[in-house]
Design goal:
- The chain has 288 residues and is mainly alpha-helical.
- It contains twelve helices and six strands.
- The strands form three sheets. A two-stranded antiparallel sheet has the order 1-2.
Length: 288
């Protein structure tokens, strides 16, 4: 279920998240039309007057250091919001009828809450800086969901089975299509509005505010770091032909950094006799 939920999130994230959204540049017909028709700003309700993107500017040049993580957050929110739509789930092959929240949707939201918590690993307290755009984005989403209240998301300090401090994230499944949808929808509207209008002042103020890690979150980070597991090593075996053409044999390697290097060297040698022989055999008929 985790894999299927992640597939849905990534699909929406990339195609409908990053793949949507209009930018309004000053001096263009689109921006002029918003002003002339006194189009209401979705956040303030006041007529749109700008600020709009300066001529020649881009999203990245306008939003600077936060452009990447802000955009990732917008795409992640798109995934959370749209995975509640039956039509979207149908596209990914989850057309079965269910009562209440679909398992795919629930697992997707739960994974996001967990990612927001474990993402604290990528925050450096000494410099008060984030080191990874996606993780900062997921932490921001967690903060938004917690701020929404109503019992949707709760973080608890618990004692693990090993007797050490641990954390438990609780997500009320029944509140996802109501309170959860409203919270993420309102936040996504702000993200999109500030981006579309090139409103760096309001957008950065909001986003940086949610990115802050207060004392309580720093305490949770200590538990996250204490629970961090060593990075997993994927050491692949090597199937190779036995000399004399008497079949094949499987070569295994030690599960260590040294074994990983040996595996790579065995599977990708500096010189491959079979590949070289193929090259010489076809060289005459291949043009330069």
């Amino acid at each position: 279920m985790k894999g299927e939920a992640f597939e849905v999130q990534v699909g929406i994230h990339e195609l409908l998240g990053h793949g949507s959204g209009k930018l309004f540049h000053a001096g263009t017909p689109g921006a002029a039309k918003l002003v002339e028709e006194k189009f209401a700003n979705p956040i303030t309700g006041e007529p749109v007057t700008g600020p709009f993107y300066p001529t020649g500017s881009t999203w990245d040049s306008t939003f600077g250091k936060i452009a990447s993580t802000y955009e990732e957050c917008r795409a992640e929110c798109s995934g959370l919001f749209l995975c509640l739509e039956k039509a979207v789930l149908d596209v990914f092959g989850h057309a079965e009828q269910v009562t209440g929240v679909h398992d795919i949707t629930y697992v997707n939201w739960l994974l996001m809450v967990r990612a927001g918590l474990t993402g604290l690993e990528f925050y450096t307290p000494e410099t008060a800086a984030w080191r990874q755009a996606h993780m900062q984005a997921r932490y921001v989403i967690l903060r938004v969901l917690l701020e929404g209240g109503g019992g949707l998301v709760t973080l608890k300090k618990v004692v693990g089975a090993d007797g050490r401090p641990d954390l438990e994230a609780v997500l009320d499944r029944n509140l996802i299509p109501t309170l959860g949808r409203d919270i993420i929808g309102a936040f996504l509207l702000k993200l999109q509005t500030y981006k579309s209008l090139g409103d760096f002042a309001a957008g950065s103020s909001m986003y940086n505010g949610y990115s802050e890690v207060d004392e309580n979150m720093l305490q949770l980070r200590e538990i996250v770091m204490a629970r961090k597991e060593p990075r997993k090593l994927l050491v692949q075996p090597h199937m190779h032909a036995v000399e004399g053409g008497a079949g094949a044999a499987l070569m295994s390697f030690e599960q260590s950094p040294a074994g990983m290097v040996q595996s790579f060297a065995a599977r990708f040698p500096a010189e491959d006799p079979e590949l070289l022989a193929l090259y010489h055999a076809e060289k005459a008929v291949v043009s330069d």
